[in-house]
Amino acid sequence: MVFQDVARMLKDSINGYTYNVGDLLPPEVELAQRYSISRNTLRKALLLLEEDGMIERKHGSGTYVKQKSFIAHVNHMNSFSEIAHNSGKEVISQIMKFELQTASPLISRELNIKLNDPVYYIKRLRIIDDKPAQLEETWLSVSRFPKLTISHMKKSKFSYIEKECGIKIIGTFETFSPAFPTAEIASILHISTKDPVLKIQTQAVCKNHQPIDYSILYSNAFEFQVKYFLPR
User: Fold this and answer.
1) Would you give the DSSP letter of residue 164?
2) From 207's CA, which of 78, 101, 185, 194 has a CA 20 to 30 Å away?
């Protein structure tokens, strides 16, 4: 619906560099003209943002930015759970699939295992403040992690690998690319198929540079953003 699209565009604008928390948004008539919509449609969009806690509408005064979406600050390799925890947030992991598969040519190559070897496939939704922040698809070798359970994947994957399995993770290879979500992914992340997501392909490696896992992440930029500091 049009007002939902406008709400997403407004959210994107608020999360950018134009506004700070406490700033006054332009008058309704100006915003309606900017997006070529009626004031009634604009008010429906503003209502969505107000219900989401992003704006505060004060009668006779205007509409103010109340808060921005969660922006995490990262200066070295962290898991999703660690990034959220370091920012004072807690993550809920909703396990959507946990099943055994045989390794495809891609997965066998990324995990450095034989074709058709058994692997775990886990699809989980990472939720912060009751909002869908990231959809993750992960593959791990069954022979390397024979005791992996759904309970482990509801928590931190990296914590399980390092603390319970005794495998030291020295880093990850990450490939970033913009992508338009499928209808399924858009529905899970509560966005439109026209809203681009950040697709991240990751491969964690241990101290002997052997791959530990292979994951594909789809980040909802409206709800979860990461600001990196990379030392020179």
Assistant:
1) I
2) 101
- Give the model's pLDDT for residue 95: 98
Q: Residue 93 pLDDT more than 90?
A: yes
Q: How far apart are the first and last CA of the chain?
A: 46
Q: What is the pLDDT of residue 24?
A: 92
pLDDT of residue 4: 85
**CA distances for 176 relative to 128, 183, 199, 201, 217, angstroms:** 22, 21, 6, 7, 10
Question: Distance (Å, rounded) from C-alpha 154 to C-alpha 168?
Answer: 20
Q: Tell me the CB-side half-sphere exposure of residue 125, using CA atoms within 13 A.
A: 17
Q: Look up residue 160 and give its DSSP letter.
A: I
Q: Name the pTM for this structure.
A: 0.75
CA-wise closest residue to 119 among 95, 134, 137: 137
